[in-house]
Amino acid sequence: GFVAVLVLGATGYLGVVHRALAGPIGAVGGVASALAAAFGVALALRRR
Length: 48
Prior knowledge:
This protein is mainly α.
């Protein structure tokens, strides 16, 4: 749980940095973050 939050937080931070550097890269990072979040939630629900 905590690890997933840290990973998502780091991914979100990188997404913001990339977005500041380049729009397309930021967009890809945002999509990746959303997919990672959905995957993390699915795993959390399965573990419960």
